[in-house]
Amino acid sequence: TNISLTCVAEGDPEPIIKWRKEDFKPMNTLIGPTEVYENKVLELLKISRTDMGAYLCIASNGVPPAVSKRIVVGVEFPPMIWIPNQLIGAPFGSEVILECLIEAHPMALVFWTFDGHHIIPGENYNITTERNEYRTHMRLIVKRVKPGDHGNYKCVANNHLGEGVGSIKLFVTNRERSPMIVKKIPSQPLN
Fold it and tell me: Domain Ig-like: where (predicted)?
């Protein structure tokens, strides 16, 4: 989908209109990616979530001050999830942190499940959630890992456009036991 933003300014002499993103990131315009675009109409091509943010229309004619107008562009999309570590081993009695990174707009309703059951923070679990713009960083802290914590954890995110699910497998190891060799295989020369 393409969108057009229009900026009209009057003055004597006639003002020059330039567009830029407030965060100075390049804009995907008719002339290709550019940081500054000179025209009354800014056409953004194939808009995606990376095009979200504030755009500035700046009008100047050499007579101070230049004037600007801020326009915020939002792009709606269903939740997308990234799991940094999908398989985690933790010793019995330790604390382990499971992480989930989510992008969604509008913001998603987010939660954790364990073996299909909704996780509620409390004695065994703590949940932290950091949000900014359209990103959410969610952490599930499993306190004092026990054998019953072994299993499948899911990070779930929902908005009106869809659902995203990320999976993490946690396995619990016995802290008291050191690694042992089950069977020693003699080395053989390579031919």
Answer: 1-68, 78-173
Q: How far apart are CA 13 and CA 60, in angstroms?
A: 9
DSSP, collapsed to helix, strand or coil, labels residue 131 as strand
Q: Three-class SS of residue 51? A: helix
Same domain, 67 and 82: no
Q: In sequence order, what are the residues at sequence separation of 6 or more whose Cβ sits closer than 8 angstroms to the Cβ of residue 86?
A: 166, 167, 168, 169
Judge contact between 32 and 45, C-beta under 8 A: no
Q: How far apart are CA 59 and CA 50, in angstroms?
A: 25
Regarding whether 88 and 169 lie in a shared domain, the answer is yes
Give residue 66's domain range.
3-73
Structure token digits, residue 83: 């799991």
Q: Quote the pLDDT of residue 184.
A: 47
Alpha helices in the chain (DSSP H): none
Residue ranges with strand state E in the chain: 3-6, 16-21, 27-29, 32-34, 37-38, 41-44, 53-60, 67-73, 77-82, 87-91, 96-105, 109-114, 117-118, 125-132, 135-142, 151-159, 162-173
pLDDT in tens, 77-87: 999 999 999 99
Which tokens is 127 given?
């949940």
